[in-house]
Amino acid sequence: MTGDWRTDRIGAARRGENPTVLRRLESGFAVIGDVQFLPGYSVLLADEPGVERLSDLPRAKRLAFLSDMDHLGEAVERACRDLDADFRRVNLEILGNTDPFLHAHVWPRYEWEPAESVGKPVWLYPPERWRDERFRLGPQHDVLRDAICGELDRLRATA
Q1: Nearest to residue 49, comparing CAs of 19, 9, 18, 21?
Q2: How crowded is residue 155: how many other Cβ atoms within 10 Å of its Cβ?
Q3: Across the 159 residues of the chain, what is the mean pLDDT of every consecutive 10-residue run?
Q4: Residue ranges in the chain assigned as alpha helix (H)
Q5: Cβ atoms < 10 Å from Cβ of 104
Q6: Among candidates 133, 154, 139, 114, which has minimal Cα distance to 23?
Q7: Alpha helices, DSSP H only, in 16-138?
Q8: Which letter does DSSP use for residue 122 in this model?
């Protein structure tokens, strides 16, 4: 996957040009991460132009974003637990240190992670993990994508 959509992920999602989009949610877009060294890594992108922080949103939209983050986290948890017996938990993060738009990271964590990484934030994984072509999002992740989408659909149906 290459192209201009990465320079404007939210705009590309709104135009239907972001290939990582899993589902449109109330407050934005659930997307699967470009890198999958922890299979199931996903991101919630807020669909509010110019919003950089959670506190930039009015209270109702803020709560909708947090609710969508919860739904995406639960969908990733269910999908990853079903696909990998070594699934441990999901970590949810709103950081905003690099990209200037509101987004939330959903990181599945596994028993098979290296001992030096398992108890630390994902951001401390070695830089080569982030660049290794073996972990780039691709067709090999279609089953995982479908599982997360299915869980998002089930959660929405019962909400």
Answers
A1: 9
A2: 15
A3: 75 94 98 97 92 95 98 98 98 90 97 93 93 95 98 94
A4: 9-14, 59-83, 115-118, 127-131, 142-158
A5: 25
A6: 154
A7: 59-83, 115-118, 127-131
A8: G
